[in-house]
């Protein structure tokens, strides 16, 4: 209950305070990436496996037909989109998802249906959590797109290495979850620091 009250209050306040930034980014997208929507919407899997529509600022060209794994330097990502993704500004509209209750400020990143279907037995416990804008796995792999670009088969590396490790970390987060831990994760995210918790490497 405390977490949900904090999420709703912080996300609502954040949307009000960040409104000028929302406006600037929206205008830049309209000018630099004309002919398409300002916002990007996609189906994701949320708490208890329920689907919801995530909202972000658009960072890619239209009709790119790309996969769900994104690699740094891809042509489908525009120069402005690359800047927004680098500083996580594309994720600011997700505060609306938090306000609605689809997401939390802290939790596992919401997967597309195909990846959520890969969760097996105990791994599906992560679906008991609301997905988050940030979380321990997000902090560990903050430079995920750069890391993927360094491997010859990014999709294989993601499926066999990154995705399983994220699931492991999210299960550990579920075991150690607390309001104070969430605050620590939020501050680490805002300050650009790594989360140093012993259980992350167990």
Descriptive overview:
The chain has 202 residues and is mostly helical. The protein has one domain (2-201). It has nine helices and four strands; from the N terminus they run H-H-E-E-H-H-E-H-E-H-H-H-H. The chain has helices at residues 2-17, 19-32, 79-86, 94-100, 113-116, 136-140, 144-149, 154-176, 179-191; strands spanning 39-45, 51-57, 104-106, 132-134. It has a two-stranded antiparallel ribbon with strand order 1-2. It has a two-stranded parallel sheet with strand order 3-4. Helix 5 links the parallel strand 3 and strand 4 (132-134). The longest helix is centred in the last third of the chain and has 23 residues, at 154-176. The chain is globular, with a radius of gyration of 17 Å.
Summarize the structure.
The chain is mostly helical.
- How far is the first residue's CA from the last residue's CA? 29 Å
- Percentage of residues in DSSP E strands: 5-15%
**Rg, Å, rounded:** 17 Å
What pattern of helices and strands is seen along the backbone?
A: HHEEHHEHEHHHH
Largest sheet descriptor:
2 strands, antiparallel
The general outline is: globular
What percent of residues adopt helix (DSSP H or I)? 40-55%
Provide the domain count.
1
Flag low-confidence runs. none
How many alpha or pi helices?
9
- Which structural class should the secondary elements be placed in? mainly alpha
As laid out across the biggest beta sheet, the strand order is 1-2
Query: What is the typical, i.e. mean, pLDDT?
Result: 92
Number of strand elements = 4
